[in-house]
Write the structure tokens for this entry.
Amino acid sequence: MDALQGIVLGVSQGVLEWIPVSSQGQSMLAMIYWLGLSPNDALTNSIFLHLGTMFAVLIRFRREFIKMIKDIDSMMTRIIIVSTLCTGITGIPLYLLFQESFTGGREATILIGCLLIATGFMLRFKGSGARGTEDMGLMDMVVLGLAQGFSILPGVSRSGTTLTVLLMRGFKQDEALAVSFIISVPAVLGAILLDHSISEIPWATATVMLIASLAVGYLTMDLLIRFAQRINFSGFCIAFGLITLLFSIVL
């Protein structure tokens, strides 16, 4: 992968992270068929790409994180701790399963296509309740974390999954959205620590990928989040999932 390709992937991550279309699934498809990477290498690079948008989230929600540091017993701190632990319960086994079972490009493509379709049907749920962050109980945190763990699989939208779970449990959309992105920070750090192959990414490529995803992600975050709230991406995910499955059959 050269610098230009790294920039293109970083820009793509910076845009797609804020809409529920599985930025990881999209970037992995590009890396498998455009760059010729193996599914495991593509997964490693796609996980690293999230580091840039993670820093964008840290900057965007810096007041919330500073408040958590000052008040360790805050509700948001408890949400992060419990949800992160539960994310590991589902995320780590699924990560290991993917690495062992989906070593071929065709198999990985079929999985991504199926999960995009599943994501599309999940996004058909609409609604918003009246519950706020302070109303979140232990079971809400556990369910939220377990659901987030499934997003380690390419094709499952992390933001779409966590937001849908919170809405289904009656939380306000604005607060659910903020929680969804805040809990992504420890999840991304955990995934990066889990994937030891990240250290093998050339430093020059890693740098341009990080800068591009951070810069574009921060600049587009608010605009694309508002856009995602107005547009239902269910049809897009289902259609793209079907195209992906057809693509895997043809090739």
Notes: Residues 121 and 234 are 6 Å apart (CA to CA). The mean pLDDT is 93.
